[in-house]
Amino acid sequence: QHKFWETQPVGQFKDLGDPSLPEGPIEPPTSLSEVKQEPYNLPSPYEWTVCDMDSDEICNEVYVLLTNNYVEDDDNLFRFNYSKEFLRWGLRPPDHFRNWHIGVRVKSSKKLVAFITGIPVKMRVRDEVVKMAEVNFLCVHKKLRSKRLAPVMIKEVTRRIHLENIWQAAYTAGVLLPTPLATCQYWHRTLNPKKLIDIGFSRLGDRMTMSRAIKLYKLPSSTVTTGLRKMEARDVPAVTRLLSDYLGRFAVAPLFDDAEVSHWLLPQVNVVESYVVESSESREITDFFSFYTLPSTILNNPSYSVLKAAYTFYNVSTKTPLAQLMQDALIVAKKNDYDVFNALDVMENEPFLKELKFGRGDGQLYYYLYNYRLRDAIRPSELGLVLL
Ligand code: MYA
Ligand code: JJ1
């Protein structure tokens, strides 16, 4: 059934719910000298390469590979179109490892045909803090699918992560593998109904006309929360405190210090936006929201080529009601010409999703841990983690 995943230290379907299995690492670390020192063998036409994301040329090669070969929806209408600036941001957080940005090239032509990445993160799982990698951007060129390249790439990124004395990882996928930590649902808030319908992203349901849809999804022209403004560098300590306190409530969540909050939340045009609420009396930061920009290519449409999508990232409310804060996020996104605002049902999102007219998507996102067992899956609302 899963010839590769059966060999890996991940929770197996047959062990689900077995109360005799302890929570925690599935296999213990070995000494670094026991980690394989040479890269895994690729089929002979291919070679490993480190993708230096500082280089415009290499960043562009990665961008082109992903633009043409990365994740599509179930009906192959849309394909994620991560921008170069986004890839740089996503892959170069504080203390990242250059050689965790792994490419595969055709030896003869040097064409980049596959990619996988890791970045370091400190993750809290219930009461334990574990150094982990987040593995993302696994991609094999469409012409090289089903040749069992993915298992070799996963083993190679694992080896390089082990060499840094890290033995656990977190990852997400749209496909079901052994075995999810959580199963999350995508939700979508229409901002530009006409375009979404024209491109097949959404449909006019029964008794819904275009003019009704436009009215239904209309938003106030400006934000409603007093003291709302773009996040600035001086806000970092306050945001770090708010976020750390908030993420402490979830069963699984990353730990972010000031440097990581600066990296992940300070606004970058067309990559990530964050807004804080500053109290007019105390000058304190009481709330914030953030979203990242991930367009999708619209495949085979005569009038549109790109869907501009915002994805909610980390949000914390202590004074402003969360639904009001998130309505302001929708208003900001609409003003900035996004077509749709996407969210998962993680953290405390579920109540505002319903209130703010998000609709359930046709996609799910499965979250996984590598070499760390939890006896049972957790609910999405117990998850304090968003991967890009
Ligand atoms: S999720 C995004 C994944 N990318 C895409 O969906 C883009 C479009 N698709 C492709 O590029 C290819 O179809 C990919 C598979 C590359 C996905 N995660 O080479 P194959 C298993 C994990 O013949 P291909 C993301 O980036 C599959 O079950 N495993 O297949 C997070 C089968 O194994 P088994 C996957 O289609 C990635 C084997 O691969 C996935 O040519 C996290 C078949 O290999 C998937 N998304 O290529 C990776 N899809 O027989 C794990 C298929 O056992 C990280 N497979 O069922 C683990 C932690 C590592 C670090 C540990 C550190 C300690
Ligand atoms: O975007 C997604 N689905 C959309 C488009 C569906 C097009 C036909 N398949 C969707 N639209 C309906 C919205 C509608 C708005 C008005 C109210 C009712 C709802 O459902 C889906 C998510 O739902 N996206 C994908 O399938 C992309 C892949 C998701 C898995 C990603 C894995 C990446 C992991 C990397 O780490």
Write the layout of secondary structure elements.
Layout lengths: L45 E5 L5 H14 L8 E3 L3 H8 L9 E6 L5 E14 L2 E13 L8 H14 L5 E6 L8 E9 L2 H6 L11 H7 L11 E3 L5 H12 L4 E4 L2 H8 L6 E7 L6 E9 L2 E3 L7 E2 L1 E4 L3 E2 L4 H14 L4 E5 L4 H7 L3 E12 L18
Parallel strand pairs: 5-6, 14-16
Antiparallel strand pairs: 1-3, 2-12, 3-4, 4-5, 4-9, 6-17, 7-16, 7-17, 8-10, 10-11, 11-14, 11-15, 12-13
Helix pairs in contact: 6-7
The protein binds tetradecanoyl-COA and ligand JJ1.
The site of ligand JJ1 has 20 residues, from strand 6, strand 7 and strand 17.
Tell me what you see in this structure.
This protein is an alpha+beta fold and 388 residues long. The protein has 9 helices and 17 strands. Strands 1, 3, 4, 5, 6, 7, 8, 9, 10, 11, 14, 15, 16 and 17 form a 14-stranded mixed sheet that branches. Strand 12 and strand 13 (306-307) form a beta hairpin. Helix 6 (236-247) packs across helix 7. The longest helix has 14 residues, at 56-69. The radius of gyration is 21 Å and the shape is globular. The two termini are 29 Å apart. The model has no long low-confidence stretch (mean pLDDT 98). The site of ligand JJ1 has 20 residues, from strand 6, strand 7 and strand 17.
